[in-house]
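User: quick one, fold this
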Amino acid sequence: MVNEHQLRVVGELEQVPNVCNWVVQVAEETGLDTQAVNHLELAVDEAITNIIEHGYGPDAGKKSIELIIREDGGDFKVTIVDEGPPFNPLGTADPNPLAGLDDRPDYGGGWGLFFIKKVMDAVNYEYTSNRNRLTMVKRFE
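Assistant:
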């Protein structure tokens, strides 16, 4: 049986805690363990924050973000849909955690995406109908 939950919010940083709380509540209700719930919260926080800060920029309050949670068999899937310019987070190189501080880029970026890929069981991206769709999967143990 597939269960689906949806939420749409204005793309403002003030919405990030509300979105994370909603994801945590749904994840806990489905029986995901504490570590999986924590991983989901981290991944959603990073993804939403990146969309608002980098994808929307000054237009953030004028655009929305949609979240779709699907419990499908042994998978808990969170799909985040945004109206920003096309950006495939899976196409960026991971930062080197062994690099010295002087050898890292000045912007210091890429760590959020790095952590998303590390804590989730699968991460998929597609750009369809002028929308970015990032799907993050956590498997039930």
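User: anything notable?
Assistant: The radius of gyration is 15 Å.
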